[in-house]
Amino acid sequence: MTRIVLLCNVSNSGIRSRLHFRSRMSEWRWRRASEDYGQWNSVAISNISAWEEVSLTVIFPHYGLKENVQRFSIDGVDYICYRPDEDRLIQGPSFRYPRLRRLVKREIARIKPDLVHIVGAENPYYSICGLDLPEETPLLVSLQTLLADPNFLKSYPMPERAYAFYTGVERALLQRADWIATRVEPFREIVRGFVPDARFISMSLPVGVDVDLSPCPKEYDFVYFSANLNKAGDHAVEAFAKAWKASPGITLNLSGACDPAYLEQLYSSAQALGCPREAIIYTGPKDTHEEVIAQIRKSRFALLPLKVDLVSGTIREAMANGLPVVSSITKGTPRLNRARESLLLAPVGDTDSLAGCMLRLLNPDGPAAMLRENAALTVDELYSNRHFMEIWRLAYRVLASGEPLPEELIKNTLVL
User: Fold this and answer.
1) For site-directed labelling of 112, which of 47, 213, 262, 360 has its Cα 20 to 30 A away?
2) Which 3 state secondary structure label does DSSP give 284?
3) pLDDT tens-digit profile of 181-233?
C-alpha cells in the first residue's frame, strides 16, 4: 500500500457536510467558508479513493472552523482539516504559519508517507509545510500558476513585501521539491533559472469537464465569470461596452465575487463609454461549482479575456457547456485552435478587438454554431480527466517506489 499525503486547497459540499463551523461569522468569512474551490483537487481525490493500492491522507485549510483541527474520512480517504492561522487575525506579509507547520510535522511523522504531493506552490498557508519535510521524504509539487513569472506581478499587482515573501516561499519549495509537475514549458524555463537541476514530471491537474450541449433557456447574451471579477473584469466590461454601442440591447452577466467598490468602478467605466448600467447584470458568487455551471449556461456566449493565465478553467468550462468563447491571445490559448478553430481570440488588453469578436458571434451568419461544435471536440480531446488521472496513478507508483521514470512522465506534449 502506497501512503500518499496530499497538501492542497479544496472545498466541496461533501467535505463541508463533515465540518463544524462557528455559529457566528462575518459575511465575508461565511462566503469563504461556504463556497466550492479547488475543483481539480476534488476530482483528483474522488479518483484516488478508488485506487486500492493507495492510502490517501488530505491535509487542507478551511475557513470558519469551530475547532483548530478536524479529522474525518470519506470513501476511504482520511482528511485532516485545519483552521488557517490567518483565520484568527490579520498577519503580515512575512508570517511563517507556526501552528500549521507544527501540525503538519506531527502528521507527517505519524503517517510516514511514501510521497508528499503539494498542489499549488504559490499558497504559503499550506505549501510552506513542504520546507519542513524530512530530507528522506519524497516531495512532488504541482504548479497551478507561477508567481515567479514576471507577467504575474504586471497583471496582478500586490504590495512589494507580500510579493517578495510569496515568491520566496515558492522558490524555496521548488528548490526542495524532488519533482515538479507541469507541462507548461514557459513555467519550466522560469523555474530552471533558479533550480537548474529541476526534475519535471509531465503531469496535469484534472481540470477537465464533461461536455454538455443540451439546450438551456437563455437570459443573457454574454457572461464573464471568475472566482473574483477583478481578475479581468475591467477588460470584459470595457469590451462589452464597446460592443453594446454597435449593438444596443445586448446584455452581460457578471458572475463571481466582487468588492462593491470595484463593481461600481466597472459600472462607471461602462457608462463612460455610453453603455447603460442596466445592460450589465451582476449575479454575485455561487456556493457550489454546479451552481456556477448552471448560471453560465443562462448565457449565449462567454466573454473571458485573460491577462496572464495560459488557459483558464473558465474557458474550458464555457467550451464544454456550449458557449462560444471570446478570449485573449496568451501563450496557451492558441493551442485550443490548433486542430480546429474553437474560440475567437484578440490580443491581451485590446478591448476593441474583443468587441469585434463579440459582434461576430452576434451576427446570425457568424461562426457561433461552428465554434460551439468545434469547442466540444477540442475539450474532449485535450481535457479528459480519465487520462489525467491515469498519469497521476502512474506517477504515484513510480515516484514512491523509486523506479525509473517511464516515457509517459517524461515527454512534454503540452496540454493546458
Assistant:
1) 47
2) strand
3) 998 888 999 999 999 999 999 998 997 667 889 999 999 999 999 989 999 99
Using one digit for the tens of pLDDT, what is the confidence trace for 52-111?
Answer: 999 999 999 998 999 999 999 999 999 999 988 665 444 555 568 888 899 999 999 999
The candidate with the shortest Cα–Cα distance to 142, out of 123, 121, 127, 126, is 121
SS3 291: helix
**Helix, strand and coil in the chain, % to nearest 5:** 45, 20, 40
CA atoms of 336 and 311, how far apart (whole Å): 9
In whole angstroms, give the CA distance from residue 17 to residue 245.
47
In a domain, 416, yes or no: no
- What DSSP designation does 17 have? T
Q: Are 371 and 322 in contact (CB under 8 A)?
A: no
Which amino acid appears at position 329 of this protein? I
Alpha-carbon distance of 109 to 80, in angstroms, equals 14
347/345 Cα distance (integer angstroms): 7
Q: 237, 216 in Cβ contact below 8 A?
A: no
What is the C-alpha to C-alpha distance for residues 64 and 81, in angstroms, rounded to an integer? Answer: 11
Look up residue 71 and give its DSSP letter: E
Q: Helices 313-320 and 368-382, interaxial angle, to 10°?
A: 120
- Contacts of residue 155, Cβ cutoff 8 Å, sequence gap at least 6: 307, 308
Residues 273 and 334 in one domain: yes
Q: Are residues 81 and 225 in the same domain?
A: no
Q: Give the number of other Cβ atoms within 10 Å of residue 334's Cβ.
A: 12
The upper half-sphere exposure of residue 149, i.e. CA atoms within 13 Å in the direction of its Cβ, equals: 23
Query: H or E segment at 377?
Result: helix 368-382
